[in-house]
Amino acid sequence: MEKQKGNSVCDCNDIPGDDCACKEGQKDVLDTARKEKMDELEILGQALVEEKKKTSELSDQLLRLKAEFENFRKRNEKEKQTLIAWGKEDILLKQLDLLFVIEQACKSVDGASDLESIKTGLKLILSEFQRMLKAEGVKAIDALGKQFDLNLHDAVEQVEDNKAKDGSIVEVLQDGYKIGEKVIKHARVKVAKNNKKIEGGKDNG
Questions:
Q1: Which CATH number fits domain 139-199: 2.30.22.10, 3.30.70.330, 3.30.300.30, 3.15.10.40?
Q2: What mean pLDDT is predicted for residues 25-43?
């Protein structure tokens, strides 16, 4: 069978040409696909622009936060140094008050021949120093006669004493101090060791 030359019959049974229904349909499909692709590219482009904008905003926010934190750190350091300076000034003022009392005590005993004048001067110094500590909330730890407590006391020696309760403090070598309930210095003490036994094998006390 001889093949037909020239124009062939298309699926719509029309002779292909500029007005062929199949060709027009294919063109519409291509145009639609092209338009959809362009729309997708436009959407993607807009999304990319939005993401870049968000990234830029986040970057700006991070830079601002970094700058604010640096300012806060510098301000905090400055305030810290100021507080330290004020603390030193407060301590020095109290020490100057104590110095004045010592100077007055020295003047009162200068040239004094009697021991009583010297005692008065020393008592004046001691009284002023105790007043200064009390004003700061510092209190001496009451240790003598109490049971030894590691939280409050530092035992420097254990002495045999059958009249004292075992483990009790028989001598305070150096006072300890607290601010409120916080121990700032342990009392240095001697602790009794009672070797005397009573009936039942228990320590006396």
A1: 2.30.22.10
A2: 75
